[in-house]
Amino acid sequence: MTDPAQSKFTPRVFSGIQPTNHLQLGNYLGAVKRFVEMQNSGIETVYCIVDLHAITVWQDPADLQNATRELAASYIASGLDPKRSILFNQSQVPGHAQLAWIFNCVARVGWMNRMTQFKDKAGKNAENASLGLYAYPSLMAADILLYHATHVPVGEDQKQHLELTRDIATKFNHDFGVDFFPITEPVIEGAATRVMSLRDGSKKMSKSDPSDASRINLTDDADTIAQKFRKARTDAEPLPETLDGLKDRPEAKNLVNIYAALADMSPEAVVGEFAGKGFGTFKPALAEVAVDKLAPIAGEMKRLMADPAEIDRILGDGADRADAIARPILDATYDIVGMIRSRPA
Ligand code: AQP
Fold first, then answer.
1. What predicted TM-score, i.e. pTM, was given to this entire model?
2. How far is the C-alpha of 15 from the C-alpha of 154, rounded, in Å?
3. Which of 2, 97, 128, 318 has the most CB atoms within 10 Å of its CB?
4. 124 classed as catalytic
């Protein structure tokens, strides 16, 4: 992290996840586990369930509500404390959509055209994708800058969107001659910044992959987890003595990184422990570490999901606290841009 003394902005962490399908292991290791570490480091943390992002592709309304509550339960079951972190769903704080519009007018079409996630998600049928999917990175910049967040923990796939957030902040500050929005730092760290599919080591693990066998869901039971790791695609070689030996073995490297992140070890230490052993030994050991870590989270999620009214109460309370930070920043943005605000307070 940058030295806070170098910046006029108070250190504040913001990040979010879309409530689509079930949370998968990549979301947990690349994002949620690190959200918890940052909360526990004492820095102010704001964590969002980005339901406005989710609807950039079609969501059944009842499924969206359920996925929103389930994601809140996953956050809390993984160790986010709604008293220490601000935890809420995006649509309850109108400033996200309002600031996104301003940023739509700052960002350039050429910048959006370079976004690889849009190309991946829209696929060959880009003409038919929603305008929201195209403008997604501008809403993401608004999510972050609405809180003057200085640090954003994410997986590696979000790096390009964070660079765009920095570009938007820089252009806004320059166009209006202010030093108003911080130039946010991405925090992409750890052994599992890009967890790959269990079926294809060249594709990232994803909630929306049509193959359920490609990912571990946080809701999977112990048998399912063991079976998915057993069937994970690998080569026939034993594990090497050093990390160098994994260079051209993406599937093996992925499993080593997952083990390291789950067991809070370095990938070097994992290779050191399993050097010369085959996957017949390594996969069951990996399943055991995964079940140890994930089974208590799944159990706690089930307990929390039994009381949806309490989850909604937590999200409402978080939204109030988020709005209290966001509103003055949005008002100041409108003043900078030249919008008249004459309604009585
Ligand atoms: N495979 C991954 N490895 C490490 N980090 C990952 N993240 C996602 N996949 C991996 C991180 O999880 C956070 C939330 O992601 P999101 O749900 O907002 O969108 P996404 O990146 O598009 O994740 P998915 O699982 O692939 O969702 P769908 O399939 O719905 O699009 C981000 O910090 C992301 O980096």
1. 0.95
2. 7
3. 318
4. no
